Amino acid sequence: MNMEDYAKGNQLFRTYFQKNKESLLKLVKNGQSPKALFIGCSDSRVIPDLMVQSNPGDLFVIRNVGNFVPPYKPDEDFHATASGIEYAVSILKVQEIIICGHTHCGACRCLYSTIEDSSLVHTRKWLELGQSAKTSAILSLGADAPLEDLIRLTEKLSVIKQIENILTYPNVKKRFENGDLHIHGWHYDIETGKIDYYNADSYEFLPLKDLLE
């Protein structure tokens, strides 16, 4: 797509805007009050609103490389994701947090290779947040396991690790323990559109559609 395509797309969106003007302007007048914080990957194939068919105002979205959550460390440099979490939980008072990984994740794949480009200094530092998931995957499957199997497991184990990380935020932990904030781990399959959720009782990822039954 080029700029002309984006301009045409915006014209189409303005048609949608006019048809839904009343509800959209309510969000302007009354402010946003999303029910969920969605933490997902910046991967262009992961589209939160399309994946769950949500409407404007439903999701407060944070996207970054690898859908990582840096642990609570006020003296560290990862303030963009951290400030988004704090805003969603402490100001917007979301009731749900969804941390969503996905198949064929470039960040998780990069964990199994060496970044040669010395200019990618921020990327190198950021990917350290996925190292523990990689280590756990290798311990589980063995270092000689097929690479794709290791990456798929790393993607899922990383989601669990990010849940652990987000619980290091004081207000997240407090609200979670009080029962007025729920945390969910998802794994999205970009080849099928299917979402699996992490079941903390059985320690496994199960089809999200099972919750409808």
Show the helix and strand layout.
Layout: H1 3-19, H2 21-30, E1 36-41, H3 48-52, E2 59-64, H4 79-91, E3 96-102, H5 106-110, H6 121-127, H7 131-141, H8 147-166, H9 170-178, E4 182-188, E5 195-199, E6 204-207
Parallel strand pairs: 1-2, 1-3, 3-4
Antiparallel strand pairs: 4-5, 5-6
Helix pairs in contact: 7-8
Helix-strand makeup class:
alpha/beta
**Total beta strand runs:** 6
Largest sheet: 6 strands, mixed
| Strand order, sheet with most strands | 2-1-3-4-5-6
Number of helices: 9
Unreliable residue runs? none
Return Rg in Å. 19 Å
Strand content: 15-25%
Termini separation comes to 41 Å
Question: What is the string of helix and strand elements?
Answer: HHEHEHEHHHHHEEE
Sum up the overall morphology in one term: globular
Can you put this structure into words, describing what you see?
The chain is of the alpha/beta class and 213 residues long. It is built from nine helices and six strands. It is globular and about 55 Å long. The N and C termini lie far apart (41 Å).
Short synopsis of the structure:
The protein is of the alpha/beta class and 213 residues long. It has helices at 3-19, 21-30, 48-52, 79-91, 106-110, 121-127, 131-141, 147-166, 170-178; strands at residues 36-41, 59-64, 96-102, 182-188, 195-199, 204-207. It is built from 9 helices and 6 strands; from the N terminus they run ααβαβαβαααααβββ.
